[in-house]
Amino acid sequence: MAPQEYQWFPDFLQFFSQNTTIHGLNFIGNRRIYKAERIFWLLTVTVAFGIISYLVKSNWEHYNANPTMVTIKKDFRNWENPFPAATACFVDKVDKEKATEYIRKKWRINETDNKFEYYMNYVKAVSNLTYTTFNLLEPYEHDLTLNDVDMVDLVTQVHPKLSGTLVTFHTRVKTDWEIILTELGLCFTVNSGFSALLSPNYTSSKNLILGMKKENLKCHYLNGLCYARYDSEPDKSLQYYIHSHLDVIHTTSEAPFLVGNSEEFEINFKLSETYSSPNIRYLSPQQRRCRFDDEPLTKNVPVYSKSICYMECRYKMAIKMCGCKPYFYKFIGGKVCDIQGLLCLSSLAHIFNQSFEYFDCICPQPCNLMVYLKETPHLTKWEMGFFGERITFRWGLLPPTTKYHRKILFGFQDFTGTLFIP
């Protein structure tokens, strides 16, 4: 404690400098040295503190801006590689018999009624709605009786059944198609981590969490038969999208593979993967410049994926421009568009199909990124026999020999360590 006579601030500083063990400060308050020496030590201590402050500030900025690094991994013989997910969509999304039955129950008319064709065309229009086809509803703009139709219920009631045989390389993991509602309409997906989120029956995030915990297909590097094959009915053409299990298809997804009647389509993919160490989680997403799938951007969606972020951007734009959302955003709250609302979105179709920078949409990179690069496909057209009575799509994974690993370069421990270096 300072003596009672040190009542003024300059006196206290003098007392402190005379009794401190901090090198240099004790000379500043020493009454027995010359004034020139005092000034010298004052300048020396000031410069030293300035340098220390600069170093601390530089290391703090380094920690905030560049705490991670990406390295190349080559120990490929031990890898379990994530197998790509597939999403299949019918070219014709309406089963005529189911649609006829739906019209009979909903509007109590049959095929002989004059308005049957009117309602059948409405059912087909709703089942095939996307951001580029909302204009199909123009003939029904003034029919207010259609505004009470539950469009999600309609598309699920009239959608064709997916019947066929799915075979994968993995016999221990049970894999099957799951129905999902996307920006491209009702489709089926397999090996997807977000199928529960896009389910037409989605109600809460509890089912989504359970769905994300399920085991997805992985293929060991030494497995030479890493593939999946689906044999479907020959009279129902399908479009196939291949993507990461942490992605979903959306309006601007890469063009699908169309497999027609009596065709066998084979294609292999190369994997380019960037994975992150678990210990980078304590860094903020801004520091590591990526987000994990359980770090949503907003409260609207309980997970994060770059493709889901794209969908959320379109959703926000739809709410902003027309005050409602299309029916296929079941997993996000908000008013569902009626026919007039969908026609409002139709007039803005050119905006929804542009790049996301156009309407200020920022979607960070995922911390675990998987990109599947397609090889040259092989298409066989069967004219007769057993193979001519089915449609076959086969996709495989070529095991990678290189991966990218994101890890900590300069963590908080390194930052605090620099503060105590003598």
From TrEMBL:
Transmembrane feature ranges: 39-56
The keyword Metal-binding is annotated on this UniProt entry: no
One MF annotation (Gene Ontology) recorded for this entry: ligand-gated sodium channel activity
Domain of life: Eukaryota
Keywords, alphabetical: Ion channel, Ion transport, Membrane, Sodium, Sodium channel, Sodium transport, Transmembrane, Transmembrane helix, Transport
InterPro entries recorded: ENaC (IPR001873)
A GO cellular component annotation in the UniProt record: plasma membrane
Topology of the protein relative to the lipid bilayer: Multi-pass membrane protein
Localisation per UniProt entry: Membrane
Keyword Membrane: yes
Family: Belongs to the amiloride-sensitive sodium channel (TC 1.A.6) family.
Protein name in UniProt: Uncharacterized protein
Source species of the chain: Rhynchophorus ferrugineus
